[in-house]
Amino acid sequence: MRKNIVAGNWKMNTTLPEGLQLAKEVNDALKGVDAKCDVIICVPFTHLASINGVIDKNRLGLGAENCADHVSGAYTGEVSAPMVASTGATYVILGHSERRQYYGETSETLKEKVKLALANGLTPIFCIGEVLEEREAGKHFEVVKTQIEDALFDLSAEDFSKLILAYEPVWAIGTGKTATDDQAQEIHAYIRSVIEGKYGKEVAENTSILYGGSCKPSNAKALFAKPDVDGGLIGGAALKADSFMGIVEAF
Ligand code: PEP
Question: What is the pTM of this model?
Answer without folding.
Answer: 0.98
